[in-house]
Amino acid sequence: MPESILSIRDLTVEFDTEDGIVHAVTGVSYDLQAGEVLGIIGESGSGKSVSVMSVLGLIPQPPGKVVSGEAVFKGRDLLKLSKRELRAIRGGDMAMIFQDPMTSLNPVLTVGDQISEAVKTHNPGTRDEAARDRTIQLLDLVGVPNPEQRIDQYPHEFSGGMRQRGMIAMAIANQPSVLIADEPTTALDVTIQAQIIEVLKTAQEKTHAAIILITHDLGLIAELADRVVVMYAGRVVEMGDVFTIFNNPRHPYTLGLMNSLAKLEGDQEWLQPIPGQPPSLVTPPPGCAFHPRCLLSQGRTRCRAEVPPLREVEGAHLSACHFAEELASERAPLGAGVA
Amino acid sequence: MLTYIARRFLYSIVVLVAASFLTFTFVSVSSDPLAPLYTTPNVSRESIDLIAEKKNLNDPIVKQYWYWVQDATTNKFGTTLLTNQPILPDLWRVMKNTLQLIVAAELIAIVLAVGIGVLSALRQYSFFDYSATTFSFLGLATPVFWLGLMAQVLIVQVYNWTGHRVFPIANLNSVDPGGGVSFWVDRAHHLVVPVMVLMVASIATYSRFMRASMLEVVNSDYVRTARAKGLPERRVTMKHAFRNALIPVVTVVALNFGGLLGGAIVTETVFSLDGMGLYFLNALGTGDPFPVMAWLMITATTIIAFNLVADILYGVLDPRVRYD
Amino acid sequence: MTDTKHVPAGDERAQDAETRDLGAESVGRPASAGDRPGAMATIEEPLSIAEPDLSLAYESGVELRARSQWAYARIRFFRHRLALGSLLVIIVAGFVAIFADRVAPYGYDEIPLDNLLNSINRGPTLDGWHLFGTDQLGRDYLSRVIFGIRTSLWVALFVASLSTVFGTAVGAIAGYYGGVVDNLLMRFTDLILTLPGLAVLLTAAAFFGSGDPFKVGLILAFLFWTGIARIVRGVFLSLREKEYVEAAKAAGASDARIIVRHMLPNTVGPIVVNATLVVASAILVEAALSFLGFGIQPPNPALGSLISAGQSEGFRLWWLVTFPGLVIVVVALAINFVGDGLRDALDPTQRRVRA
């Protein structure tokens, strides 16, 4: 097994709000291996973004608070670093791409200014011309045409896809070894999404960075990810390599996600939504948080009483369902291969 | 951008003309400006008629308005009705005085309010934030004139206890201020309390806006991006948040000029300052429409100019704004 | 709805239907298998053990979601402690104003006989209940302030109702039809904004006449209605595009019906908040006008003219200036806090100022 570059252990994050304490992330552990693409998937509010953002100190504190856990990056626990040390890593060896390129760039500064700022911050003493050359080079790399002109334009003069390319350029400016892409294509048109996926692939080839891909888009996961972490209500409910997760899900939630996916081929006549609503994170359901919506639980007492631990069901395939085994045989009759 | 400004400018002139016509009509129709003369003992009926004739008071309103426009544009707003004094020299004098009061109050208010607003936003729900919020709620609920009077009460009480007069509580200058530097020192000394009274409402208003604007920006995606880049917090605040947060506040400040003049009218009355406010109230008191019209036109022009400046500044600060 | 003891087990579909009828979108447990063909075919676990009451209990969202928008607003308002305290202040002030004749220890212009001899210009004292002192004629100042509150509140309420009714009507028509009315409204607003508000009021008062509360109220309303009109116009412009308005139009509802039944109820929040804030500003502006001698004048009692009269006494009699002003501040502050609380309650998209 390759060495892990980022290792998150028992991470618990809470937000203190007027409505009570929101348990955004509870006891989450996963590893990111060098050079791989790790997909984190879940509904909005499942804690998939918070688990990563909190590690980088990017959640507002207060109300957010990392209650416990560790996040070891290249031998150092990020949660124990000083603000200054963390800053040196942020945007340097670990960089982020955000969801909405329309709002993630500062509207009153030129795109070039914002990218070269990333270069200069992590390479103090870089001269302006050098930073500018590097920025043009980066814009070219992510496929922005005429970078010499585009560098002096403002974000509003860029289209959504071009802005996201700019964001990616900013993220890879300092050759990061970990690249975190938080819903990088969600806000974009479908045709642009495909282009951005290509840019991400290129970026990974050039930088050899490991990528954490946070998304609720299963198609994007199928396209890019090597391994998948499925999150629900702030916990990891299933983890495994992408083929296993798609072909042989061992958690009813993952199964539900697969079934709710629109497919072009197959004999399915309508989408099958997961019944019910995402749970409240202030007062999560007791036991397994998914049980009120679960097709497998059906009022079984154990689901209401015990929080299912994340356990191995088959080699490196982990599931947090008391009855994961029941899904093994289950898969066949549903048929209609997902991947 | 030039065409935009030109278009705005032309529109402003139309508004100005419409405003002047409406006020002129209202002022002329609603009362007889010569009324005070009828009861003045040694003014004969003939001389009153002469004044009415000379000022065209017997013509139809539209004609009167046209005469007034000519008078205003070619003859510097003409003369007063009752005393036949030229209007503009007096108006200039009081404008200079009011300007000193307003500029001093606004400059201090803007600096303080921006600072308070930014700090409040950065330390939301802190003791400082609560104090600032309390202050601005109080500031917005306190009538300016009463605040001025309370300052005077306080100064008089201090005088009664200590025999020491900390600040003058009336007039722009002492009876004999001297010349040169000592004149201005005396003037500044007289303006301290009025300026402090006048700026309270501005600070209260602007700091609320600055706080709200800053809070919005601080929680925006691009500030998160700046942080994710690894920028030091100071730089995130100053370069990425502050400038963006300032944009809406600029407009608020520029558009508040009318309100500020209202505050000046009241402040000048309380402190007997020879400024535009007292001038206006005196003109209203005599019922003479001409100085009132002159005053309203000059302030309206200034307000329109401020609106234009706000528009242009907005464009300078925010590259997204396009003038077309 | 959680009392399920009498519902026979297995009758779950009826139960699901019942909870749905109560407005709960999120049913505590999945509906029975028959609802979704195919999905559950291979699950072995029997379906009969379900206990809907338990599962509903911790789905805290269910009960809340059934509440109406107004119930939510009420809850949010009552959580706002400052607004609640301020409401109390306003109720007390209103009570004092309405029953001024009974509440005030003396009449507005009453000069108690023995005061003439030994209680002229007295500072606040418990002696004879002159809590705010007496003036230069020996009149009880507390009573004068109480009658002043009555006038000020009356004028402010008059201004708020008049400008709200008129402004809402104009704003609704401008926002719904656009065109000439809209253009006229916006141009008129431009016109008014070109001049300093206080100067406009002073000019109007000087030439139109002032003195009695009714006239002063009319003049103030003339300035205040445009603000409400613009707010209502803005909301209507956005509501016009909403599906339910289009649906009502398609169904052949008359314009008047659409405006009154479909759009106005959705504008109530901003209107109420603004009307509240107008009350506070009207009190402040009326006081300033009266102080300057262009508002309510004696013999009508008003806080502003009381202060003005107090000022002319010099500052030896500090209570003459202090108390009426203090009352203005307290009342205006309370109304602003209530307005703030109402804004938070009625417009949940705005973040609450924690207090």
Which sheet architecture does the biggest sheet of chain B show? Answer: none
Largest interface: B-C, 49 and 44 residues
Tally of strands of chain C: 0
Strand portion of chain B, in percent?
under 5%
Helix share, percent of chain B:
over 70%
Helix content of chain C: 55-70%
Count of DSSP H/I helices of chain C: 16
Give the ordered list of helices and strands of chain B: HHHHHHHHHHHHH
Structural class of chain B: mainly alpha
Distance between the termini of chain B: 7 Å
Low-confidence stretches of chain C: 1-66, 350-355
Structure description:
The complex is a heterotrimer of chains A (339), B (324) and C (355). By secondary structure, chain A is of the alpha/beta class. Chain A has helices at residues 48-53, 83-89, 101-104, 111-122, 128-141, 147-150, 160-171, 190-207, 218-224, 242-247, 252-259, 301-305, 326-334; strands at residues 4-17, 20-33, 37-41, 64-73, 76-77, 94-97, 178-182, 210-215, 227-232, 235-241, 311-314, 317-319. The longest helix of chain A is centred in the middle third of the chain and has 18 residues, at 190-207. Chain B has helices at residues 2-30, 35-38, 45-54, 61-74, 87-122, 127-141, 144-162, 180-218, 221-228, 233-255, 257-271, 276-286, 289-317. Chains B and C meet through helix 1, helix 6, helix 7, helix 11 and helix 12 of B and helix 9, helix 10, helix 14, helix 15 and helix 16 of C.
Summarize the structure in short.
The complex is a heterotrimer of chains A (339), B (324) and C (355). Chain A is of the alpha/beta class. Chain A has helices at residues 48-53, 83-89, 101-104, 111-122, 128-141, 147-150, 160-171, 190-207, 218-224, 242-247, 252-259, 301-305, 326-334; strands at 4-17, 20-33, 37-41, 64-73, 76-77, 94-97, 178-182, 210-215, 227-232, 235-241, 311-314, 317-319.
